[in-house]
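Team,

Forwarding the record for the chain on the shared tracking sheet. I've put the sequence and predicted structure together so nobody has to dig through attachments.
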Amino acid sequence: QVQLVESGGGLVQPGGSLRLSCAASGFNFDSATMAWHRQAPGKKREYVAQITRSAMTDYADSVKGRFAISRDNNKNTVYLRMNSLKPEDTAVYYCNRPGFNTWGQGTQVTVSS
């Protein structure tokens, strides 16, 4: 079955960096568009970024220029490099295959001094 396992979250100071990973299995990863979303406490889940099978990328305005999504098809893994982190980036981050209602457990990112 489809599995998505996120990792790499943690506590980081404002201005710091983190790299999240999402290991995928159970579908043809090479041909799939993959996306990252996040959900902050008390807020709805929101879109962060996506990457197509041909590595075209798209970002939410709130993270453009600070975050970078990438993929390694040999490892069936999608990454989210997050730089210049702000307290408002604090959330649980999830990866997802757009159009499919399958979500991993998420990974917590906390940006605080």
